[in-house]
Design brief:
The chain has 249 residues and is an alpha/beta fold. The chain has 2 domains: 157 residues, Alpha/beta knot (3-Layer(aba) Sandwich); 72 residues, Orthogonal Bundle (Trp Operon Repressor, Chain A), CATH 1.10.1270. Helices cover 38% and strands 15% of the residues. A hairpin with a 2-residue loop joins strand 8 and strand 9. Helix 4 crosses helix 6, helix 7 crosses helix 8 and helix 7 crosses helix 9. The two termini are 44 Å apart. The chain binds S-adenosyl-L-homocysteine (SAH). The site of S-adenosyl-L-homocysteine has 19 residues, from strand 5. S-adenosyl-L-homocysteine binds next to strand 5.
Length: 249
């Protein structure tokens, strides 16, 4: 999957390309990341990318033209390389909340262009004209779109075939089956007088699987009852699951 990211802080993306699973995804060519700095698309000597908001008020707003030109350059390179024109995502607190379902859907695309805002945000006219999808990473505000963009790309990369190895498999994780993940334990068996649940040491795989499912159900019911309702309405809960939930309640 190819990502073209428009950002005033391209150096921040070394966090994505430099460590862990995302680094491996880039090194093995499963993910390609290109950054584009709006400052390189300015026409004045000061290389201005922001200006004061019309109507007054605090802060600065990212100007439309450098972003427009950066988007043109990305599209032009796409045409040259004969890749499909990618949807443009603006990461924004005003976007639709990012969910696992959305991640799975977007991970099927060959490419995405990501626009990272800074300051108070971006001139609305460039959003109206050029952006296809606005996505939020949560109901809070961070200082720029770079971390949200990296979160999105990381979540997408994990869905790509071959990015995770078996041991890291994405299918067992929180949200994949509509529930939160079960608790995990590793050695030692006894840590500061807290022991590992004995079923996990039993070697009985069926019992372990049913214990894990039960834990996931209990935990989801306690922490995110909304997800239980959703899983139920989507037919993701079995009779056994309902029995566990009834017992817990
Ligand atoms: N004035 C804006 C916040 C600007 S924060 C508002 O109140 O909505 C600067 C940039 O950070 C935004 O343009 C956006 O790209 C990014 N950003 C901040 N919070 C975000 C969030 N929750 N999800 C996605 N992007 C976010």
């Amino acid at each position: 999957m190819r990502f073209d990211v428009i950002t005033l802080f391209p150096e921040m993306f070394s966090a994505f390309t430099g460590s862990g699973i995302t680094r491996r995804a880039v090194q093995t060519g499963k993910v390609q990341l290109y950054t584009w700095n709006p400052r390189d698309f300015t026409k004045d000597v000061y290389r201005r990318v922001d200006d004061r908001p019309f109507g007054g008020g605090p802060g600065m707003v990212m100007m439309a033209e450098p972003l427009d030109l950066a988007l043109d350059a990305i599209a032009e390179q796409g045409v040259k390389q004969a890749v499909q024109v990618a949807p443009v995502v603006y990461v924004s607190p005003a976007g639709q909340p990012l969910t696992h379902a959305r991640v799975v859907e977007l991970s099927g695309l060959p490419a995405l262009t990501l626009l990272c805002g800074r300051y108070e945000g971006v001139d609305e006219r460039v959003l109206t004209k050029r952006v296809n999808i606005e996505l939020s990473i949560g109901d809070f505000v961070v200082s720029g779109g770079e971390l949200p963009a990296m979160m999105l790309m990381d979540a997408l990369a994990r869905q790509l075939p071959g990015v995770l190895n078996d041991a890291e498999s994405a299918v067992q994780e929180s949200f994949a089956n509509g529930l939160l993940d079960c608790p995990h334990y590793t050695r030692p068996e006894n840590y500061q007088d807290q022991t590992v649940p004995s079923v996990l040491l039993s070697g009985n795989h069926a019992q372990i699987a049913s214990w894990r499912r039960k834990q996931a159900l209990q935990r989801t019911l306690a922490r995110r009852p909304d997800l239980i309702e959703k899983a139920r309405s989507e037919g993701k809960l079995s009779k056994d699951d309902e029995a566990v939930l009834a017992e817990v309640k």
